[in-house]
Design a protein that fits this description.
Layout: H1 2-24, E1 25-29, E2 32-37, E3 44-49, H2 53-59, H3 71-74, H4 76-80, E4 84-91, H5 93-96, E5 100-105, E6 108-109, E7 112-116, E8 119-124, E9 131-134, E10 142-150, H6 153-163, E11 193-195, E12 198-200, E13 205-206, E14 210-215, E15 219-229, E16 236-245, E17 252-260, E18 265-273, E19 278-287, E20 307-315, E21 325-329, E22 334-337, E23 352-355, E24 358-360, E25 362-367, H7 379-391, E26 396-399, H8 408-417, E27 420-424, H9 436-453, E28 459-463, H10 468-473, H11 483-505, E29 511-512, H12 520-524, E30 539-542, E31 560-564, H13 572-576, H14 589-593, H15 600-608, H16 625-652, E32 662-665, H17 688-696, E33 700-709, E34 713-722, E35 728-737, E36 744-754, E37 761-766, H18 777-780, E38 793-799, E39 806-812, E40 817-824, E41 829-831, E42 836-838, E43 842-849, H19 855-861, E44 862-865, H20 867-870, H21 872-877
Parallel strand pairs: 25-26, 25-32, 26-27, 27-28, 28-29, 30-31
Antiparallel strand pairs: 1-14, 2-3, 2-4, 4-10, 5-9, 5-14, 6-13, 7-8, 7-10, 11-12, 15-16, 16-19, 17-18, 17-20, 20-21, 22-23, 23-24, 33-34, 34-37, 35-36, 38-39, 39-43, 40-42, 40-44, 41-43
Helix pairs in contact: 7-8, 9-11, 16-17
The protein binds 2-acetamido-2-deoxy-beta-D-glucopyranose (10 copies).
One 2-acetamido-2-deoxy-beta-D-glucopyranose (NAG) binds near residues 294, 302 and 303.
Protein name: beta-mannosidase
Keywords: Glycoprotein, Glycosidase, Hydrolase, Membrane, Signal, Transmembrane, Transmembrane helix
Pfam family, one: Ig_mannosidase
Amino acid sequence: MLLRLHLQTSLLIVILNCILCSSTEANLTLNGQWMISNSNKSINVEGHVPGTVTTSLVNASIIGNPYYRFNDVAYRWIAYDNWTYSRTFEVSDAIMQKDTVQLVCDGLDTVSDITINGKFVGTSENMFVRYVFNVKPMMTVGENKIVVSFRSAITYAKRKADEYMLNVPPLCPAGPQHGECHPNFIRKEQCSFSWDWGPAFIPQGIWKDIGIEAFNSPVIRDVTVVTHKGNSSIPWNVTVTAFLQASSTSSQSGHFVVRFPTLNITSKVKVHLNSALEYAVNATLSIPREAGVETWWPNGLGNQTLYMVEVTFAADNMAASRPPKVVRIGFRTVELIEDPLDNQQGQGLSFYFKINGVPVFMKGSNWIPADSFKEKVTPSVVRNLLQSAVDAHMNCLRVWGGGIYEEEFFYDIADELGIMLWHDLMFACAMYPTDAAFLASIETEVTQQVRHLQKHPSILLWAGNNENEVALAQNWYFTNSEYERFKADYLRLYVETIRPRVLAEDSSRPFLVSSPSNGKQSEAEGWLAKNPQDPNYGDVHYYNYVDDSWDWRIFPPARFASEYGYQSWPSFESLANVSIPEDWSYFSPFMQHRQHHIVGNLKMLFQIVRHFDLPESLVTCPQPKQTFLDTLYMTQVNQAMSIKTETEFYRRGRGTDANTMGALYWQLNDIWQGASWSSIEYGGKWKMLHYYAVRFFDPVIVSPFEELIDGKTSYLRVFAISDLQRPLVASLSVQLRRWDSFDVVRELNIDVNMVSIYSVFVLFLFIVYCLLLLFLCPLQRKPVRAVSIIGAKVTGVTQSESSSNVFHIQLSADSVAPFVWLEATACSGRFSDNGFMMTSRAREVQFIAWEAMTAERLQHALSVRSLNDVYASTERHL
Ligand SMILES: *[C@@H]1O[C@H](CO)[C@@H](O)[C@H](O)[C@H]1NC(C)=O
Ligand SMILES: *[C@@H]1O[C@H](CO)[C@@H](O)[C@H](O)[C@H]1NC(C)=O
Ligand SMILES: *[C@@H]1O[C@H](CO)[C@@H](O)[C@H](O)[C@H]1NC(C)=O
Ligand SMILES: *[C@@H]1O[C@H](CO)[C@@H](O)[C@H](O)[C@H]1NC(C)=O
Ligand SMILES: *[C@@H]1O[C@H](CO)[C@@H](O)[C@H](O)[C@H]1NC(C)=O
Ligand SMILES: *[C@@H]1O[C@H](CO)[C@@H](O)[C@H](O)[C@H]1NC(C)=O
Ligand SMILES: *[C@@H]1O[C@H](CO)[C@@H](O)[C@H](O)[C@H]1NC(C)=O
Ligand SMILES: *[C@@H]1O[C@H](CO)[C@@H](O)[C@H](O)[C@H]1NC(C)=O
Ligand SMILES: *[C@@H]1O[C@H](CO)[C@@H](O)[C@H](O)[C@H]1NC(C)=O
Ligand SMILES: *[C@@H]1O[C@H](CO)[C@@H](O)[C@H](O)[C@H]1NC(C)=O
């Protein structure tokens, strides 16, 4: 009864609102169909907005798949041309009668002139800025024509760099990236000019919503919400601020109303607006204990409870109020703790986050743009990737500074899944110009973005840039000869321009000037530390392709590892989609072209040969297809083992003097099908590393490693690590096996009592003989010759009763099979486990399908391999 009544009331409100809103404002979307033409008018196609020129050309069959083979270079002419978007639209009398009529462009990519009916409206130069233009004088009732003329971002950036007189390095990207120069001179996605994992497409287009908005009384553009922890009777105190845009400069008075509909809490504040065009009005609401508010927690630590907040501004002279602006928030606090450490080393500061007062070890990875063409990054693409992060027990992702401020739905999904976002501002791996116009544009960008995204509980912190402090400190771009100029520019941009803007817009989370940085220590050294990579302070980025990546001794005892990684190739299935048989050799021109990291393909082999013999015929071209497949597979084995070794080292670091409290490996996702550091392929398929992440990020893990004591005796040291918020009593079992049998040679059982939530249990075991140990030394000594040549095989596939998207796969093996790897070609989904060590005769794994699937189709698509198979032909030969 109550429910029915409620439904009827909301229906009434909806109807009422529609009647009312038509009288106070009228909006008109300009999304949808536009005409797109190039500068000499040889190409005229229909295109969809939001979208890019390139995708429209694909749709019109002017070009093929941009990711196919060498098309990133073959289609570069598109980025050198200038493209014009145009369309007509009908304007009603109701719109023209409003005081204010505005063109609102949420995102233009990037440099454009805009006209309506041939009259100049304005220009755009910053992809990350929302442009709002008053257009009433240019419009008429009836048909209107809007033209957005884009200019090549490449030629624009070059002209800006030429005009600047001084060099601002790096001038051009490294050769293997096949990129374009001077991305730092344009406020556009920096990696769209190429990166060491991505192509250069430098798109043009209207990439976000565009429309006409007409109104008589102030409209709310943005809402920020700060939640403060209170006391036991008033557990939360919330400050809600609305940013209003007025329609005229005449003063107005009215009411600002904030309502939590599900908590039945409302605040109404009388406000008087003077003769400005933009205002901020706020209200602070106390949330009493009786309201029963649930705290928002990161994934793994509790629920992600979210609350709606309705915000309205009603001018007194308005007949009735318009529908409220609704935002969704979470009640939580973030603190960055940088305290002097009282440990044996006696140096440095801690660096960790407390969420709702609880220290949280940040487990996760780094996020890069999920596609070169943003219209392809739909909510379902993002949800699938972020769910994959959650499936691997991640609670944190770093939104990296060479990409974009993502679409609102990205943050909504992160809020729902409990993924904390270390959010860089979009500056990466470069020095930047600091002329007044450029700084003014950045000021607008930072103000808008931080203000707009502030309300999301998932955002952990803002960081000014990616690697620009360390680039300057370590002379990456040969800046030392003019160090003082670059230092002054650095301070002007990040410390004097950006920092005050972020602090003014958002008091609810920390701000760091750079990543990596030494945090407070960088500040103490004038914001430019001598060594921003000092493991005793702040966060660290660590890459090492020279030393053995399966040896934990090479890794820095960092407080917080915010980047570290090793490359691998995606699956054959993904590569085959964008290549032809002549490309399928490890050293083919295609494989060189897709490798954007300098000598990256050799670096991978260099790591592999430390532990395995390389597949036969590797250096021949063309190569036997099996050798190509084996090599792709081995790059994934090496990447998975390397990141497992490094991540477990950081997790063990929580219980050592390192006080490590964060491990975010580089990188979660891919922008195309190429060699990269990612754990998930373009399209969502998990690499072996992602399956390993499920295990090494588990809240409770056992982490064994080899340690040489006194320089000669080798010990097996086992850490048990728990991130649970409660004591854990368990028993630990260590089993020793030979490679050629399933039998346990030796077994040890120990009771473990982990009292402290984060303490580690340390256990010393003398190693009887190295060869007997699984996971450790044997693999380092190329054991495969001792392994049976028969790997694992599939013996059956059945559909679950209980859940139609889950399939049971039976596996069997005749002896220990390392790195058993299942693939289901052309089937979207993931396995319950993969890349594992098979230490029993039979084992079951599940396939969780992300699309409609049958057992028959899956069985047909399934293939399984293990390390044994790589050497099968060799062994037979021997
Ligand atoms: C029209 O646009 C204004 C400004 O963005 C917004 O506040 C309002 O909710 C919109 N009205 C409708 C009916 O969509
Ligand atoms: C027009 O532009 C296209 C694309 O840049 C180019 O291929 C073509 O040659 C041009 N045509 C003329 C007549 O200049
Ligand atoms: C693709 O082109 C057709 C017309 O050829 C058009 O109707 C459709 O909207 C276009 N789709 C996109 C996404 O641009
Ligand atoms: C694009 O516009 C720029 C600036 O107006 C001009 O210099 C350039 O020649 C144009 N490119 C083409 C291909 O027309
Ligand atoms: C709530 O906020 C107000 C204004 O900032 C402050 O004076 C008050 O002490 C706060 N109350 C609690 C419980 O934090
Ligand atoms: C809690 O804070 C509120 C608002 O600041 C204050 O009025 C109240 O006395 C405090 N109650 C307790 C138990 O401290
Ligand atoms: C909501 O709050 C008002 C005023 O505090 C109270 O009169 C009303 O009973 C509350 N409604 C519900 C459903 O709790
Ligand atoms: C709220 O608005 C008042 C009046 O404009 C201002 O003095 C105050 O600083 C604002 N408070 C917050 C937390 O923004
Ligand atoms: C989390 O949500 C579940 C289901 O709504 C609820 O039963 C549980 O009490 C919540 N836990 C916490 C800690 O709030
Ligand atoms: C291959 O390309 C097709 C068409 O673009 C796409 O639907 C499919 O998902 C791709 N497969 C893989 C494994 O990338």
